[in-house]
Write a structure and sequence with these properties.
alpha/beta; ten-stranded mixed beta sheet; seven-stranded parallel beta sheet; 16 helices; 40% helix; 16% strand; elongated
Length: 504
């Protein structure tokens, strides 16, 4: 699924109106009626007081349409016009007149004295500011947003919470409404997926309002929200003539004394995701641990406690390196020599990333489309600090383009960055916030590349499946009892969901 910028959305609206031979009022009606139907389906005629707050632009026009249909269905609805400006869009005026014509006259809000009483069980509909907002709400409008937040009632935001920007960071948190739920039009907003907005965005869903899909495709959007429909084309079905050699050979390099769990998890993940063969290159102290924990894997060893020489004899298809490896001086020197000599596809995680950040000249030796999988602190060591999440994405994009690498930024909506392309993941939950989860992801991406997937597709697919295991497991495990090894228990179910849709 694409994520459109506010500017792209405006273009898509205009193209849809032109290409479908409809008016902007028709498009607004379609969008707002979908929101009404959502609310009507939830309420089923329940006799709650519903307060619809409308701005004087097109988002306010949506609110007027919603209020009209609520009124027609005999809900107790109050509609308010927030007069932060004396300019009104044509679509707003049309729907204002339609609403008054059926007997519901909106109430003007011009200052604090006009704020209505709101009961503890009332419902608020926020249609004050839309996706095109460019500056912070001020004056009585900001005070209204604070007033509405203070009521702690269910608040439904239409398209985007008022005060939240569609394409830049919030600079005044007090001017942003905290929505209980958001009904957003056609595509998600990138703002919904960024950690800095966690206080403003609770839950949301996309309402398809029928924008011209061919035109959207012609825009060639570079920001994506990866869901099942996007994953199905990436997944490769197997046939009866395949054998283990068909699916490549993953080599996992890592481990140090006391940190053998990380490389063990990564090795098992490469195996469980379908790599035909898996080998591990580890310190000698971990030999018995890995052979017992992952008997299907082959093992080569280095010195006793830390990796030093990186002189494996295996001939792998792809190498995943870093989990539990440590950053000792000996390991750092051996890692440098390895990076300079290596020509195979790489997935680099954990201490591999930390060593790269200490010697960034090594970035020049990485094979094209090497996959890096940092958590936020590891990312900061690589690219430096950032002021906000938008700057972070811009810096990662520049880093990716400059070095020809793919960066998987792990988090609530893990985002895979390939130059200007951003792939936000739709799966996963806080159950994955547990030690070793990242090591499993490294092994999964490595094992997928081994099977012949392009590194970008492998990263996107691996992130999706990794998150999906936690979604499937949650009803049985809750957040707290889910561990990194739980991923293996639910990985088959995650893969089978994709495979069954592919075969259908």
């Amino acid at each position: 699924m694409y994520i459109l910028s506010p500017q792209q959305t405006v273009k898509a609206d205009k193209a849809t109106i032109k290409n479908k031979g409809i008016t902007s009022v028709d498009l607004m009606e379609t969008a707002a009626v979908s929101c009404f139907k959502w609310l009507h389906n939830k309420l089923q005629g329940e006799n709650s007081n519903i307060h619809v707050f409308c701005g004087i632009g097109n988002n306010g026009g949506d609110g007027l349409v919603i209020a009209r249909h609520l009124h027609k269905h005999n809900y107790r609805v109050n509609c308010y016009i927030v007069n932060f400006s004396d300019k009104r869009t044509e679509e707003f005026i049309v729907n204002y007149n339609r609403l008054t014509k059926i007997g519901l006259k909106p109430i003007d809000i011009n200052n604090e004295n006009d704020f209505p009483e709101i009961g503890a069980n009332d419902i608020l509909v926020d249609a004050i500011f839309g996706n095109g907002l460019s500056r912070n709400p001020e004056g009585f409008t900001k005070k209204l947003i604070r007033y509405l937040d203070s009521k702690k009632v269910f608040t439904l935001a239409i398209d985007i919470p008022s005060g939240l920007f569609g394409d830049k960071s919030v600079t005044d948190a007090a001017s942003v409404l905290k929505a209980s739920h958001i009904l957003t039009f056609q595509t998600p907003k990138i703002a919904f997926l960024l950690p800095e907005n966690k206080d403003f965005v609770n839950t949301w869903e996309v309402i398809d309002i029928g924008l011209d899909q061919n035109y959207i495709e012609s825009l060639k959007p570079k920001t994506h929200y990866t869901n099942l429909a996007d994953i199905i084309p990436l997944y490769k079905l197997r046939n009866k003539w395949d054998h283990k050699g068909t699916f490549g050979h993953s080599l996992i390099i890592g481990g140090s004394y006391g940190k053998m769990g990380a490389v063990t998890l990564a090795s098992k993940a490469a195996l469980k995701i379908g790599s035909g063969l898996v080998s591990a290159y580890i310190p000698k102290c971990g030999y018995a641990i890995l052979q017992v924990s992952v008997p299907e894997a082959m093992v080569e060893v280095d010195t006793d406690d830390v990796l030093t020489y990186f002189n494996f004899k295996t001939n792998p298809t792809v190498i995943g390196i870093g989990p539990g490896m440590g950053t000792s001086e000996k390991t750092g020197k051996g890692f440098e020599n390895f990076i300079k000599d290596n020509k195979l596809p790489l997935v680099i995680d954990a201490d591999g990333l930390n060593l790269l950040s200490q010697n960034q000249l090594l970035l020049n030796y990485l094979p094209k489309n090497t996959v890096l999988t940092p958590h936020p602190k590891e990312l900061e060591r690589l690219i430096g600090v950032w002021k906000n999440d938008y700057e972070k994405l811009e810096k990662v994009s520049q880093f990716s383009k400059k070095n020809g690498v793919i960066v998987v930024i792990k988090g609530a909506h893990t985002v895979t960055v390939n130059g200007d392309e951003l792939y936000f993941n739709s799966t996963g939950n806080p159950a994955l916030a547990t030690g070793g989860s990242g090591d499993v992801l490294t092994g999964m991406i490595t094992g997928i590349i081994a099977q012949g997937y392009e590194p970008l597709n492998a990263a996107v697919l691996g992130v999706y499946l990794h998150g999906k295991t936690a979604d499937i497991a949650l009803p049985a495990t809750g957040y707290e009892t889910f561990t990194a090894t739980t991923v293996f228990e639910y990985l088959a179910a995650a893969i089978l969901e994709v495979a069954s849709k592919k075969e259908a």
